[in-house]
Structures are given as structure tokens and as C-alpha cells.
From TrEMBL:
Gene (UniProt): rpmC
Family, similarity comment: Belongs to the universal ribosomal protein uL29 family.
Any Gene Ontology CC annotation: ribosome
Database matches in NCBIfam families: L29
Protein's UniProt name: Large ribosomal subunit protein uL29
Amino acid sequence: MAVGTKTLAPSELDTFEDQRLVEELRKAKEELFNLRFQSATGQLESHGRIRAVKRDIARLYTVIRERELGIRATPAAVEVPAKAKKTKAKKADAAEAVKEEAE
């Protein structure tokens, strides 16, 4: 996905996880910084690019905030199958279950 394009639609952002949204926001801010630097030194060729990147940043902030408020749903998390390792918490739960069955 290219930052600063019209292809960065809110419907496309719905499929991104929170960490990816934050990463895209970081990239967009970095690009905006570089564009402003180019503009200050007279090297910028496309001034419309600054506007597009600013809109993308606003779009990303909006999606992040809507998720915080519960207005926009987060994508379904893909669960990674865990190994059958017993942790202390699982062992304690298992011990309680055995205790309850005995009663």
C-alpha cells in the first residue's frame, strides 16, 4: 500500500490490525516530514503529495480512534496454535478442576 494515495480507503483500513495501522501512521508521518523538508529546500516537485499524505494521516487517526471508541470493529484475530506446554497458571487451573471433581 502506498502512503498518500486514494487507494488508502477506510474499507481497506478495516482489514489492518492495530499494529499495522500504527506502523502505517509512522510511515506517513515520516513521509510528510521528508516532503516538508524537500519543500523547504526547493526540491519538491509535487506539492499535492503533501496534501494527500496529510489526508492519509487524518484517515489513519480516525480509524484508530473509532476502534478505541468501539465504533469501528477490529479485524478478527487469527489464533496461532500454541504448543501443549503447561504453564503455572494452567497447572493451577488443572489442579482446581481435579479438586472440584473429587468433591
